[in-house]
Amino acid sequence: SVSDNLPSAGQAEMVSALDQNGPQYLQNPIVIAADWIGFIALFGSSLAVAYKLVTFKGPDQDDVYFFGYREEKMISVFVNLFAALAYWAKLASHANGDVGPAASVTTYKYLDYLFTCPLLTIDLLWCLNLPYKFTFGAIVAVCILCAFMASVIPPPARYMWFGMGITVFSAAWFNILKLVRMRLEQFVSKEAKKVRQSLKVACMTYFFIWLGYPTLWVLGDAGVLDSVVSALLHTFLDVFSKSIYGFALLHFVMRTDKREFIFVPLKPSVEKIVVEDDESTSSRAESTRASKSKIMIGSRGKKLR
Known about the structure:
- By secondary structure, the protein is mainly alpha-helical.
- The model is unreliable at 1-21, 270-293 and 299-305 (pLDDT under 50).
- The longest helix is centred in the C-terminal third of the chain and has 32 residues, at 227-258.
- It contains 12 helices and 2 strands; from the N terminus they run H-H-H-H-H-H-H-H-H-H-H-E-H-E.
- It has a two-stranded parallel ribbon with strand order 1-2.
Protein backbone atom coordinates (compact mmCIF):
# COMPACT_ATOMS: atom_id res chain seq x y z
CA SER A 1 0.00 0.00 0.00
CA VAL A 2 0.96 3.66 -0.30
CA SER A 3 1.24 4.01 3.47
CA ASP A 4 3.82 1.20 3.55
CA ASN A 5 6.08 3.22 1.26
CA LEU A 6 5.96 6.35 3.39
CA PRO A 7 8.97 6.89 5.67
CA SER A 8 8.43 6.68 9.39
CA ALA A 9 9.03 9.68 11.63
CA GLY A 10 12.43 8.34 12.69
CA GLN A 11 13.44 7.69 9.09
CA ALA A 12 12.34 11.15 8.02
CA GLU A 13 14.36 12.72 10.82
CA MET A 14 17.42 10.69 9.81
CA VAL A 15 17.06 11.73 6.16
CA SER A 16 16.79 15.36 7.23
CA ALA A 17 19.92 14.99 9.33
CA LEU A 18 21.77 13.38 6.44
CA ASP A 19 20.78 16.04 3.94
CA GLN A 20 21.21 18.94 6.38
CA ASN A 21 17.87 20.58 5.62
CA GLY A 22 17.57 19.27 2.07
CA PRO A 23 18.41 20.42 -1.47
CA GLN A 24 17.34 24.03 -0.79
CA TYR A 25 20.31 24.45 1.51
CA LEU A 26 22.70 22.65 -0.87
CA GLN A 27 21.66 24.75 -3.87
CA ASN A 28 22.38 28.02 -2.09
CA PRO A 29 24.91 30.00 -4.24
CA ILE A 30 26.98 30.77 -1.14
CA VAL A 31 27.34 27.07 -0.33
CA ILE A 32 28.27 26.25 -3.94
CA ALA A 33 30.85 29.07 -3.99
CA ALA A 34 32.32 27.86 -0.70
CA ASP A 35 32.65 24.34 -2.10
CA TRP A 36 34.46 25.70 -5.17
CA ILE A 37 36.83 27.65 -2.93
CA GLY A 38 37.46 24.55 -0.82
CA PHE A 39 38.16 22.41 -3.89
CA ILE A 40 40.50 24.93 -5.52
CA ALA A 41 42.42 25.59 -2.29
CA LEU A 42 42.82 21.92 -1.37
CA PHE A 43 43.57 20.61 -4.87
CA GLY A 44 45.98 23.48 -5.49
CA SER A 45 47.69 22.77 -2.19
CA SER A 46 48.14 19.10 -3.03
CA LEU A 47 49.79 20.02 -6.34
CA ALA A 48 52.02 22.68 -4.76
CA VAL A 49 53.15 20.44 -1.89
CA ALA A 50 53.80 17.55 -4.29
CA TYR A 51 55.86 19.79 -6.57
CA LYS A 52 57.99 21.11 -3.70
CA LEU A 53 58.65 17.62 -2.36
CA VAL A 54 59.39 15.99 -5.72
CA THR A 55 61.80 18.74 -6.78
CA PHE A 56 63.70 18.80 -3.46
CA LYS A 57 67.17 17.32 -4.05
CA GLY A 58 68.35 16.85 -0.51
CA PRO A 59 70.74 18.81 1.73
CA ASP A 60 73.60 18.56 -0.81
CA GLN A 61 71.40 19.13 -3.88
CA ASP A 62 72.55 15.84 -5.41
CA ASP A 63 69.64 13.48 -4.70
CA VAL A 64 66.90 13.62 -7.32
CA TYR A 65 64.73 11.11 -5.45
CA PHE A 66 65.32 12.39 -1.92
CA PHE A 67 61.65 12.19 -0.82
CA GLY A 68 61.08 9.24 -3.14
CA TYR A 69 62.91 7.17 -0.54
CA ARG A 70 61.23 8.99 2.33
CA GLU A 71 57.63 8.63 1.22
CA GLU A 72 56.21 9.12 4.70
CA LYS A 73 56.90 12.83 4.08
CA MET A 74 54.38 12.73 1.19
CA ILE A 75 51.38 12.18 3.48
CA SER A 76 50.25 15.82 3.33
CA VAL A 77 49.91 15.52 -0.46
CA PHE A 78 47.28 12.80 -0.10
CA VAL A 79 45.56 14.57 2.78
CA ASN A 80 44.90 17.60 0.60
CA LEU A 81 44.13 15.52 -2.49
CA PHE A 82 41.52 13.33 -0.79
CA ALA A 83 39.92 16.37 0.85
CA ALA A 84 39.75 18.01 -2.59
CA LEU A 85 38.00 14.92 -3.97
CA ALA A 86 35.37 15.22 -1.24
CA TYR A 87 34.68 18.80 -2.33
CA TRP A 88 34.63 17.66 -5.96
CA ALA A 89 31.94 15.13 -5.02
CA LYS A 90 29.89 17.96 -3.52
CA LEU A 91 30.29 20.03 -6.69
CA ALA A 92 29.19 17.06 -8.81
CA SER A 93 26.15 16.73 -6.57
CA HIS A 94 25.35 20.43 -7.07
CA ALA A 95 25.56 19.95 -10.85
CA ASN A 96 22.93 17.20 -10.60
CA GLY A 97 20.58 19.36 -8.57
CA ASP A 98 21.44 17.75 -5.22
CA VAL A 99 18.79 15.07 -5.49
CA GLY A 100 18.85 11.45 -4.41
CA PRO A 101 21.75 9.71 -2.65
CA ALA A 102 24.26 12.17 -4.13
CA ALA A 103 22.88 14.89 -1.86
CA SER A 104 24.17 13.17 1.28
CA VAL A 105 26.96 15.70 1.85
CA THR A 106 27.41 14.48 5.41
CA THR A 107 28.66 11.17 4.02
CA TYR A 108 31.18 12.92 1.76
CA LYS A 109 32.40 15.09 4.61
CA TYR A 110 32.94 12.31 7.09
CA LEU A 111 34.45 9.97 4.51
CA ASP A 112 36.99 12.74 3.94
CA TYR A 113 37.62 13.16 7.67
CA LEU A 114 37.87 9.39 8.24
CA PHE A 115 40.76 9.27 5.77
CA THR A 116 42.51 12.60 6.29
CA CYS A 117 42.33 13.21 10.04
CA PRO A 118 44.18 10.02 11.03
CA LEU A 119 46.74 10.75 8.31
CA LEU A 120 47.28 14.28 9.66
CA THR A 121 47.95 12.82 13.10
CA ILE A 122 50.34 10.18 11.77
CA ASP A 123 52.09 12.81 9.65
CA LEU A 124 52.75 15.14 12.58
CA LEU A 125 53.98 12.39 14.90
CA TRP A 126 56.11 10.80 12.18
CA CYS A 127 57.83 14.06 11.24
CA LEU A 128 58.85 14.54 14.88
CA ASN A 129 59.69 10.85 15.46
CA LEU A 130 57.18 10.60 18.29
CA PRO A 131 55.70 7.35 19.63
CA TYR A 132 52.21 5.91 19.07
CA LYS A 133 51.87 7.25 15.51
CA PHE A 134 49.40 4.64 14.28
CA THR A 135 47.81 4.20 17.70
CA PHE A 136 46.73 7.83 17.84
CA GLY A 137 45.83 7.73 14.15
CA ALA A 138 43.43 4.85 14.86
CA ILE A 139 42.00 6.66 17.90
CA VAL A 140 41.30 9.71 15.75
CA ALA A 141 39.48 7.43 13.28
CA VAL A 142 37.28 6.23 16.16
CA CYS A 143 36.47 9.87 16.96
CA ILE A 144 35.41 10.48 13.36
CA LEU A 145 33.15 7.42 13.37
CA CYS A 146 31.48 8.69 16.55
CA ALA A 147 31.06 12.14 15.00
CA PHE A 148 29.44 10.62 11.89
CA MET A 149 26.95 8.68 13.99
CA ALA A 150 26.19 11.80 16.02
CA SER A 151 25.40 13.62 12.77
CA VAL A 152 23.04 11.06 11.21
CA ILE A 153 21.23 9.49 14.18
CA PRO A 154 18.22 11.23 15.78
CA PRO A 155 18.31 12.15 19.49
CA PRO A 156 18.75 10.94 22.13
CA ALA A 157 21.15 8.45 20.52
CA ARG A 158 23.01 11.27 18.72
CA TYR A 159 23.98 12.80 22.07
CA MET A 160 25.24 9.44 23.28
CA TRP A 161 27.48 9.19 20.22
CA PHE A 162 28.64 12.78 20.61
CA GLY A 163 29.48 12.16 24.27
CA MET A 164 31.53 9.10 23.38
CA GLY A 165 33.30 10.91 20.55
CA ILE A 166 34.18 14.04 22.52
CA THR A 167 35.50 11.91 25.40
CA VAL A 168 37.84 9.95 23.13
CA PHE A 169 38.77 13.13 21.25
CA SER A 170 39.67 14.99 24.44
CA ALA A 171 41.90 12.18 25.68
CA ALA A 172 43.68 11.87 22.32
CA TRP A 173 44.04 15.65 21.91
CA PHE A 174 45.59 16.06 25.37
CA ASN A 175 48.05 13.18 24.99
CA ILE A 176 49.18 14.18 21.49
CA LEU A 177 49.69 17.75 22.73
CA LYS A 178 51.77 16.39 25.61
CA LEU A 179 54.06 14.48 23.24
CA VAL A 180 54.51 17.40 20.85
CA ARG A 181 55.31 19.79 23.71
CA MET A 182 57.97 17.40 24.94
CA ARG A 183 59.60 17.52 21.52
CA LEU A 184 59.29 21.30 21.22
CA GLU A 185 61.09 21.72 24.54
CA GLN A 186 64.10 20.01 22.97
CA PHE A 187 64.53 22.72 20.33
CA VAL A 188 67.15 24.54 22.38
CA SER A 189 70.10 24.95 20.02
CA LYS A 190 70.50 28.00 17.81
CA GLU A 191 69.95 25.99 14.63
CA ALA A 192 66.88 24.27 16.06
CA LYS A 193 65.27 27.56 17.03
CA LYS A 194 65.53 28.77 13.42
CA VAL A 195 63.11 26.10 12.22
CA ARG A 196 60.89 25.94 15.29
CA GLN A 197 58.53 28.73 14.17
CA SER A 198 57.10 26.85 11.18
CA LEU A 199 56.56 23.81 13.42
CA LYS A 200 54.69 25.98 15.91
CA VAL A 201 52.40 27.24 13.12
CA ALA A 202 51.66 23.65 12.07
CA CYS A 203 51.01 22.59 15.67
CA MET A 204 48.75 25.57 16.41
CA THR A 205 46.77 24.77 13.27
CA TYR A 206 46.49 21.11 14.24
CA PHE A 207 45.50 21.57 17.86
CA PHE A 208 43.38 24.71 17.84
CA ILE A 209 41.61 24.49 14.48
CA TRP A 210 40.50 20.96 15.32
CA LEU A 211 38.65 22.28 18.35
CA GLY A 212 36.41 24.17 15.95
CA TYR A 213 34.74 21.03 14.57
CA PRO A 214 32.99 19.85 17.76
CA THR A 215 32.20 23.50 18.49
CA LEU A 216 30.38 23.83 15.15
CA TRP A 217 28.47 20.61 15.86
CA VAL A 218 27.25 21.95 19.21
CA LEU A 219 26.30 25.35 17.78
CA GLY A 220 24.51 23.75 14.83
CA ASP A 221 22.59 21.32 17.01
CA ALA A 222 21.55 24.17 19.32
CA GLY A 223 20.21 26.13 16.35
CA VAL A 224 22.71 28.97 16.78
CA LEU A 225 24.15 28.41 13.28
CA ASP A 226 22.12 27.73 10.17
CA SER A 227 23.30 25.28 7.52
CA VAL A 228 24.75 27.92 5.18
CA VAL A 229 26.92 29.52 7.85
CA SER A 230 27.97 26.09 9.07
CA ALA A 231 29.04 25.11 5.54
CA LEU A 232 31.14 28.28 5.21
CA LEU A 233 32.85 27.71 8.55
CA HIS A 234 33.52 24.04 7.76
CA THR A 235 35.19 25.07 4.50
CA PHE A 236 37.34 27.57 6.42
CA LEU A 237 38.37 24.92 8.95
CA ASP A 238 39.06 22.33 6.24
CA VAL A 239 41.37 24.66 4.31
CA PHE A 240 43.26 25.78 7.41
CA SER A 241 43.54 22.34 9.02
CA LYS A 242 44.83 20.74 5.80
CA SER A 243 46.31 23.33 3.43
CA ILE A 244 47.82 25.82 5.89
CA TYR A 245 48.95 22.98 8.13
CA GLY A 246 50.42 21.16 5.13
CA PHE A 247 52.47 24.16 3.98
CA ALA A 248 53.71 24.92 7.50
CA LEU A 249 54.78 21.33 8.10
CA LEU A 250 56.32 21.17 4.61
CA HIS A 251 58.41 24.25 5.41
CA PHE A 252 59.53 22.66 8.65
CA VAL A 253 60.34 19.28 7.06
CA MET A 254 62.37 20.78 4.21
CA ARG A 255 64.37 23.03 6.54
CA THR A 256 65.14 20.20 8.94
CA ASP A 257 66.16 17.89 6.09
CA LYS A 258 68.43 20.56 4.62
CA ARG A 259 70.19 20.80 7.97
CA GLU A 260 70.04 17.02 8.49
CA PHE A 261 68.16 17.09 11.77
CA ILE A 262 67.87 13.76 13.59
CA PHE A 263 65.00 13.38 16.05
CA VAL A 264 66.14 11.02 18.79
CA PRO A 265 63.43 8.86 20.42
CA LEU A 266 61.95 10.55 23.48
CA LYS A 267 63.46 9.55 26.82
CA PRO A 268 61.06 11.03 29.41
CA SER A 269 62.66 9.00 32.20
CA VAL A 270 65.19 9.65 34.92
CA GLU A 271 68.74 9.86 33.68
CA LYS A 272 70.71 6.64 33.93
CA ILE A 273 74.39 6.54 34.73
CA VAL A 274 76.12 4.43 32.14
CA VAL A 275 79.66 3.20 32.72
CA GLU A 276 81.39 2.75 29.38
CA ASP A 277 84.55 0.84 28.71
CA ASP A 278 87.30 2.11 26.43
CA GLU A 279 85.97 0.24 23.43
CA SER A 280 82.44 1.67 23.67
CA THR A 281 83.83 5.15 24.27
CA SER A 282 85.98 4.88 21.16
CA SER A 283 83.02 3.60 19.16
CA ARG A 284 80.84 6.53 20.25
CA ALA A 285 83.59 9.05 19.40
CA GLU A 286 83.88 7.59 15.91
CA SER A 287 80.12 7.72 15.45
CA THR A 288 80.08 11.34 16.57
CA ARG A 289 82.74 12.27 14.05
CA ALA A 290 80.82 10.52 11.28
CA SER A 291 77.65 12.47 12.02
CA LYS A 292 79.10 15.78 13.15
CA SER A 293 77.22 17.63 10.42
CA LYS A 294 73.87 16.37 11.71
CA ILE A 295 71.82 18.15 14.37
CA MET A 296 70.48 15.93 17.13
CA ILE A 297 67.10 16.93 18.57
CA GLY A 298 66.47 15.39 22.00
CA SER A 299 69.63 14.45 23.85
CA ARG A 300 69.90 10.97 25.29
CA GLY A 301 70.00 11.99 28.92
CA LYS A 302 67.70 15.01 28.90
CA LYS A 303 65.03 15.10 31.59
CA LEU A 304 61.57 15.98 30.34
CA ARG A 305 58.68 17.11 32.47
